[in-house]
UniProtKB/TrEMBL annotation:
<feature type="transmembrane region" description="Helical">
    <location>
        <begin position="20"/>
        <end position="44"/>
    </location>
</feature>
<keyword id="KW-0812">Transmembrane</keyword>
<dbReference type="GO" id="GO:0030026">
    <property type="term" value="P:intracellular manganese ion homeostasis"/>
</dbReference>
<feature type="transmembrane region" description="Helical">
    <location>
        <begin position="210"/>
        <end position="231"/>
    </location>
</feature>
<feature type="transmembrane region" description="Helical">
    <location>
        <begin position="179"/>
        <end position="198"/>
    </location>
</feature>
<dbReference type="Pfam" id="PF01988">
    <property type="entry name" value="VIT1"/>
</dbReference>
<dbReference type="InterPro" id="IPR008217">
    <property type="entry name" value="Ccc1_fam"/>
</dbReference>
<keyword id="KW-1133">Transmembrane helix</keyword>
<dbReference type="GO" id="GO:0012505">
    <property type="term" value="C:endomembrane system"/>
</dbReference>
<dbReference type="GO" id="GO:0005384">
    <property type="term" value="F:manganese ion transmembrane transporter activity"/>
</dbReference>
<protein>
    <recommendedName>
        <fullName>Integral membrane protein</fullName>
    </recommendedName>
</protein>
<keyword id="KW-0472">Membrane</keyword>
<feature type="transmembrane region" description="Helical">
    <location>
        <begin position="50"/>
        <end position="68"/>
    </location>
</feature>
<feature type="transmembrane region" description="Helical">
    <location>
        <begin position="147"/>
        <end position="173"/>
    </location>
</feature>
Length: 232
């Protein structure tokens, strides 16, 4: 049978990008958070066992925190979108022409002639009144919704994967080089995640990458310094 399951819907490109974003940011946070922990502990001159124990604790806490954070934040966004849709539905019932006029004036302000703007606005409202009102007033597409569960799963998987890099580096490299080797590997990883995040958000790749690396270096420097202060 070729019938699709009822309610099944293919994710839009925007929804897919949001899930990828959640995964990339989860990996980025996993890399940096656990790197900061293991570097701080390593700087205190403790055993590799204790370093990995602290790293594992940080990985577990961060994984749960990131997943729950994504789930809650996406739901909060969806609540706001539903509220916007409810408001526009009410406006359309009370004064639909006012909404058409709003969109017309918006397009005229963007440089479109009044007649063309009015015609375009009217055609859009004739086809999908509430969707058009929400999209034009709030820049929200009610038909596109990011999966809160999907975003949580993406973070749940990517955070511990990112955490493995600093944990493996600091445990496999000799004591004399484990801190600089971990810092170097984390910087390379942060360059990659920063560039990917910038690409997804259509931001300046160089600026985003440098910002991500600088923030990471500052974080690692502070935790390493604290570890040295409490070294045995």
């Amino acid at each position: 049978m070729n019938k699709k399951k009822k309610g099944a819907r293919k994710l839009s490109l925007n929804a897919q990008i949001n899930l990828i974003r959640a995964g990339v940011m989860g990996a980025n946070d996993g890399i940096l958070s656990v790197a900061a922990i293991v570097l701080g502990v390593a700087a205190a001159n403790v055993s590799t066992h204790n370093i990995l124990l602290a790293g594992f604790a940080g990985m577990l806490a961060g994984t749960i925190s990131m997943a729950m954070g994504e789930y809650v934040s996406v739901h909060a966004q969806r609540d706001a979108e539903e509220r916007a849709t409810a408001d526009e539905t009410q406006r359309m019932e009370l004064n639909p022409q006012a909404e058409v006029d709003f969109v017309t004036h918006k397009y005229v302000a963007a440089g479109i002639s009044h007649d063309l703007a009015a015609k375009a606005a009217q055609e859009m409202f004739d086809q999908a009144p509430v969707v058009t009102a929400v999209r034009e007033r709030y820049d929200i597409d009610p038909g596109e919704q990011t999966s809160a569960f999907g975003a949580a799963i993406a973070s749940f998987i990517s955070f511990p994967l990112g955490s493995l890099l600093p944990m493996l580096t600091i445990s496999l490299v000799g004591n004399a080089w484990r801190i600089p080797a971990t810092v170097a590997s984390v910087v390379i990883a942060l360059m990659i995640t920063g560039a990917i995040a910038a690409k997804l958000g259509n931001a300046n790749v160089l600026k985003a990458t440098v910002r991500n690396v600088v923030a990471g270096l500052i974080t690692m420097a502070i935790t390493t310094m604290v570890g040295h202060i409490f070294a045995r």
